[in-house]
């Protein structure tokens, strides 16, 4: 594969419920197979002192060479991070709110050709399954997450398949003009029924 600065990226709100600690736990396991694995977190930390908690975990588990913690950046700079990364992570923990939410970052990852490791529930599960653009895991299971990380980084054929499927789906199915058209039709229908 292309040499990129980061193997794994998580972009967005960074919190325990959004899987940040599970991602680090998985990295500890996956690093046994791929010692130089690089992970980047990019976003806003919730609560604010959560970044300190992550830093403590990083020091405790000797991950300083593997993990990069960044604050939120402008959207243009986010694209630079995506271009420098191989795999996108969306490991929301199983709470009611996330079962009905649809993380926009999935579509961002797809359009940059990043295979996705995602939680195995809710709307994200449907998209990842239907578009065959990543691996679904139990987001509470660090071993499963680690296995997905090492599989995508060590199996070029699977990586390439998920990458291309995601990029093609983003181009053919999820362009904003198409989504806008669907939204417009929905409103027209709703208004005509009134």
Structure description:
With 194 residues, this protein is α/β, with parallel strands linked by helices. Helix content is 52%, strand content 15%. It contains nine helices and six strands, in the order E-H-E-H-E-H-E-H-H-E-H-E-H-H-H. The chain has helices at 20-30, 50-60, 75-83, 96-100, 105-111, 122-131, 142-154, 156-172, 176-193; strands spanning 6-11, 39-43, 67-71, 85-90, 116-119, 134-137. A six-stranded parallel sheet has the order 3-2-1-4-5-6, sandwiched between helices. Helix 2 (50-60) links the parallel strand 2 and strand 3 (67-71). It is globular, with a radius of gyration of 17 Å. The relative contact order is 0.15.
Structural class by helix and strand composition: alpha/beta
Largest sheet: 6 strands, parallel
Provide the spatial order of strands within the biggest beta sheet.
3-2-1-4-5-6
Q: End-to-end distance, in Å?
A: 54 Å
Fraction of residues in helix? 40-55%
Strand content: 15-25%
Compressed to H and E, one letter per element, the order equals EHEHEHEHHEHEHHH
Work out the helix count: 9
Low-pLDDT runs of 5+ residues are: none
Radius of gyration: 17 Å
Averaged pLDDT, please? Answer: 91
Tell me the total number of β-strands: 6
